[in-house]
């Protein structure tokens, strides 16, 4: 009995194909979707012809062929309906476009099982007899039943369409940033020549969506036509597999490839074959460890060859790099409204306040917005309110939506081979949400926790690595033109601040919280009011193993500290805040008594995140093993600190502190408290007018940084006693009018920075005795109009930074100081970082 199922499929296909070709010309509203369907049908037409021709040989029953016939007939119904929908009926047009896209994808999926037939039949000579064809078809059936072994190269246009064609793009995009990015990237692709463009952003920002939209752009499609190839690279790309698919996509015979070297050679040959026309290669989701893949695809000799890469990593070896930023709040609201739409009915939140609060929890990430909006589609007010209440109580979206956690979690997977970077990423969770984290605080933390170089060069390198992976942002509040980063202290980074996206912070904390509390390597605690965790307040805890402990309190915290046993703690980060609106009401904050027994504690970082300084008490609990202390926005009894015993202390920093300078006659010397201090940093401490004389008795002191202290007017006369000083930085001390003569004794000083000391009228007469002086920064010294004669003795002076009018003074010395380089400072101040 003859089976006519194949013929029925052929008839249904022919009817659909002719209809699509006709409507592509006549119906403009759905032309994009219809052209894609036409392309798909054109690709599978040879399969349909062979099914029809060899129906009896295939020996397939009506039951097997019936689903394909039904699919094609359903497609005809969808295509028929295109002519009935009015072009101004936007909602119906949108929903029907989605149905056409879905149908196209289903056709591709259904016909994959017939790809082997196309390969085997079309590669045979036309003179084959029926018996030989029958044997080949039996081979095909064997392949289908054994799962189509990956060693068989299936040279099918349809398979290539499925693997390297551009996936469907959303019908709308939201956000001026995204639209501007699309426009900018389009311009770059339309330029002639070869280039690699990196599109980078944190996970969930919409990089893949942008790339799909770009590849489907009419102007881009018009230029590159069929030479647009879209490759999802991900974690472990197979270069051989990608190159073979590119051959399939371009309908060339697939070469046998035995090594990556062969793959690169074959890729080059392929690009030369198709490179007479413009070529666009889109590499989506490239991980850091796959950077070599991008390099292997990059061939300058191909005339008009563009590569667009999306990645969470910046790939600094390539340019240009395009950063895609999160949405603004209004754009996030717009996207949320779009995503919460059901069918052709626009469904908004029960009220605008509820919607805005829900969007706030989504942190402006498109992925998060889409997932949350989808979960709320069609739900009533009670459901929205319940979901919002959960989030307000601190429930994490990472726990409630696996899709979000999986997406952001890829960032951790990408660090699997570099555990040190993952450690640094988790450490950022030690600081509060939305906090600008001073780079110098991270340096103090990481130098002690990971035994890095004291100047923090490695710490800053690691911070930049986090930024390049889009795991943190780095803002620069002020640029120091002295190039201190080349050879001097970490104070160069005092104007650098890191910030971590809220959801990435949640991810970091979630990773930190794995395992039993007593055994965790880092412990990050956030206290609400005076409520301590049960394991702590009940005093039943075992000694903690944490090497890093971070405690953040809110505005209502006032309780005494329960005891904690921290035998392994090396770094303690304390974050607190108050609700005071006026500095006339001082907040009192006590250091926890348990610090006293933390014998291994090396670094203490205390930050008041309120606007006004808070009074800090219990200084006596600070242990003698501390090597680094950093205070921010606290009142510090600097002169009274002489009673402490900080004999291991190497560095102490005060940032935006109120330094109390009251003292009594029986106060111990500060040099007795910290006799081994190497670095003293005082920044933005407005009430500081002078240093205690005892500072000059700390013989090991090498770095003295007093910056942005606008009432600081004089260095101690005994400053010359600090014979080991290498760095004296006094920039933006606007009340400073002169330097003491004894400074000439500082013969080991290499850097003298008096930049923006507006009232400094002269350098010391005997400055020439500072024989090792290597650099002077005197930009912004408006009253300094002449140089002392002894300046000619500075034979080691290599660099001076000043404005053009001061450069003339130094220019006269070029003959005497042949190594001198005069750098003009012309930078305009910027407040962009405040955004």
Could you walk me through the main structural features you see in this protein, from its secondary elements to its overall organization?
With 835 residues, the protein is an alpha/beta fold. The chain folds into six domains: 147 residues, no CATH class; 148 residues, P-loop containing nucleotide triphosphate hydrolases (Rossmann fold), CATH 3.40.50; 76 residues, Helicase, Ruva Protein, domain 3, CATH 1.10.8; 90 residues, Arc Repressor Mutant, subunit A; 186 residues, Alpha-Beta Horseshoe (Leucine-rich repeat, LRR (right-handed beta-alpha superhelix)); 100 residues. Helix content is 37%, strand content 14%. The strands form four sheets. It has a 13-stranded parallel β-sheet, sandwiched between helices. Strands 2-3-4-1-5 form a five-stranded parallel β-sheet, sandwiched between helices. A four-stranded parallel β-sheet has the order 12-14-16-18, with no helix packed on it. Helix 4 runs antiparallel to helix 5, helix 9 packs across helix 10 and helix 22 packs across helix 23. The longest helix has 23 residues. The N terminus and C terminus are likely disordered.
Provide the number of structural domains: 6
Calculate the terminal CA-CA distance, rounded to whole Å: 78 Å
Indicate the overall shape. Answer: elongated
CATH architecture verdict of the largest domain: Alpha-Beta Horseshoe
Q: Work out the strand percent.
A: 5-15%
Q: Largest beta sheet, briefly?
A: 13 strands, parallel
The structure class reads alpha/beta
Query: What's the helical proportion of residues?
Result: 25-40%
Indicate the radius of gyration in whole angstroms. Answer: 35 Å
| Poorly predicted segments | 1-5, 58-62, 115-162, 481-488, 829-835
Mean residue pLDDT: 79
- Which strand order does the major sheet show? 9-10-11-13-15-17-19-20-21-22-23-24-25
How is the CATH topology of the largest domain named? Leucine-rich repeat, LRR (right-handed beta-alpha superhelix)
Number of separate strands: 25
Count helical runs. Answer: 27
Which CATH class of the largest domain applies here?
Alpha Beta
């Amino acid at each position: 009995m003859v089976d006519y199922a194949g013929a029925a499929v052929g008839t249904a296909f022919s009817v659909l194909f002719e209809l699509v070709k006709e409507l592509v010309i006549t119906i403009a509203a759905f032309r994009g979707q219809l052209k894609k369907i036409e392309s798909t049908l054109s690709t599978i037409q040879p399969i349909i012809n062979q099914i029809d021709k060899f129906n009896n040989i295939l020996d397939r029953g009506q039951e097997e062929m019936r689903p394909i016939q039904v699919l094609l007939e359903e497609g005809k119904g969808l295509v028929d309906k295109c002519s009935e929908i009015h072009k101004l009926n936007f909602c119906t047009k949108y929903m029907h476009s989605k149905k056409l896209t879905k149908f196209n994808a289903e056709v591709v999926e259904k016909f994959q099982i017939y790809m082997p037939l196309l390969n085997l039949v079309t590669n045979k000579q036309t003179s084959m007899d029926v018996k030989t064809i029958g044997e080949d078809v039996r081979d095909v059936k064997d392949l289908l039943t054994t799962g189509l072994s990956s060693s068989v190269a299936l040279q099918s246009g349809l398979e290539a369409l499925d693997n390297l064609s551009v996936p469907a793009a959303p019908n709308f995009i939201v956000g001026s940033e995204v639209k501007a990015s699309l426009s900018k990237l389009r311009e770059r692709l339309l330029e002639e020549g070869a280039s690699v463009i990196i599109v980078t952003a944190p996970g969930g920002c919409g990089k893949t969506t942008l790339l799909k939209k770009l590849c489907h752009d009419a102007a881009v499609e018009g230029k590159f036509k069929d030479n647009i190839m879209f490759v999802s690279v991900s974690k472990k790309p197979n270069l051989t597999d990608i190159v073979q698919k590119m051959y399939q996509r371009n309908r060339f015979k697939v070469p046998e490839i035995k090594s990556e070297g062969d793959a690169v050679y074959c890729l080059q040959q392929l690009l030369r074959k198709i490179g007479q026309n413009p070529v666009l290669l889109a590499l989506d989701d490239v991980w850091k460890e796959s950077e070599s893949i991008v390099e292997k695809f990059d061939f300058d000799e191909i005339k008009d060859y563009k590569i667009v890469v999306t990645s969470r990593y910046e790939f600094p070896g390539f340019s240009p790099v395009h950063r895609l930023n999160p949405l603004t709040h209004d754009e996030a609201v717009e996207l949320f409204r779009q995503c919460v739409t059901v069918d052709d009915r626009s469904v908004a939140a029960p009220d605008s306040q509820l919607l805005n609060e829900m969007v706030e929890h989504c942190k402006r990430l498109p992925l998060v917005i889409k997932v949350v909006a989808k979960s709320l589609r069609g739900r009533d007010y009670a459901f929205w309110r319940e979901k919002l209440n959960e989030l307000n109580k601190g429930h994490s979206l990472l726990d409630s939506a696996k899709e979000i956690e999986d997406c952001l979690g890829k960032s951790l997977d990408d660090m699997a081979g570099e555990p040190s970077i993952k450690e640094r990423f988790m450490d950022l969770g030690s600081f509060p949400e939305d906090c600008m984290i001073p780079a110098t605080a991270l340096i103090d933390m990481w130098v002690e926790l990971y035994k890095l170089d004291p100047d923090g060069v490695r710490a800053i390198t690691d911070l930049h690595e986090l930024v390049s992976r889009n795991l943190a942002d780095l803002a620069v509040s002020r640029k120091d033109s002295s190039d201190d980063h080349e050879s001097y202290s970490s104070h160069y980074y005092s104007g650098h601040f890191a910030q971590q996206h809220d959801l990435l912070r949640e991810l970091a904390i979630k990773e930190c919280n794995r395992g039993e509390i007593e055994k965790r390597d880092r412990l990050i605690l956030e206290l609400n009011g005076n409520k301590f965790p049960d394991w702590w307040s009940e005093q039943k805890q075992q000694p903690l193993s944490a090497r890093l402990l971070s405690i953040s309190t809110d505005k209502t915290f006032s309780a005494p500290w329960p005891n904690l046993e921290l035998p392994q703690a090396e770094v303690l980060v304390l974050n607190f805040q108050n609700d005071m609106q006026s500095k006339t009401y001082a907040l009192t904050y006590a250091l926890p008594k348990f610090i006293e027994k933390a014998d291994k504690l090396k670094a203490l970082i205390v930050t008041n995140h309120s606007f006004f300084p808070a009074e800090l008490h219990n200084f006596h609990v600070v242990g003698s093993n501390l090597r680094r202390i950093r205070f921010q926005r606290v009142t510090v009894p600097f002169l009274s600190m002489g009673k402490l015993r900080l004999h291991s202390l190497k560095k102490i920093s005060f940032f935006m502190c109120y330094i109390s300078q009251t003292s009594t006659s029986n106060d111990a010397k500060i040099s007795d408290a910290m006799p081994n201090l190497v670095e003293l940093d005082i920044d933005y401490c407005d009430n500081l007018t002078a240093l205690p004389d005892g500072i000059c008795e700390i013989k090991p002191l090498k770095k003295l940084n007093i910056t942005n202290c606008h009432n600081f007017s004089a260095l101690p006369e005994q400053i010359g006693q600090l014979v080991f000083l290498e760095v004296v930085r006094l920039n933006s001390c606007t009340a400073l009018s002169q330097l003491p003569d004894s400074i000439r004794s500082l013969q080991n000083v290499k850097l003298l920075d008096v930049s923006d000391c507006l009232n400094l009228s002269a350098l010391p007469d005997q400055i020439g005795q500072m024989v090792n002086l290597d650099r002077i920064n005197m930009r912004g010294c408006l009253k300094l109009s002449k140089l002392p004669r002894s300046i000619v003795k500075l034979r080691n002076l290599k660099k001076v930074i000043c404005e053009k009018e001061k450069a003339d003074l130094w220019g006269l010395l070029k003959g005497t100081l042949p190594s001198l380089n005069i750098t003009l400072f012309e930078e305009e101040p910027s407040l962009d970082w405040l955004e």
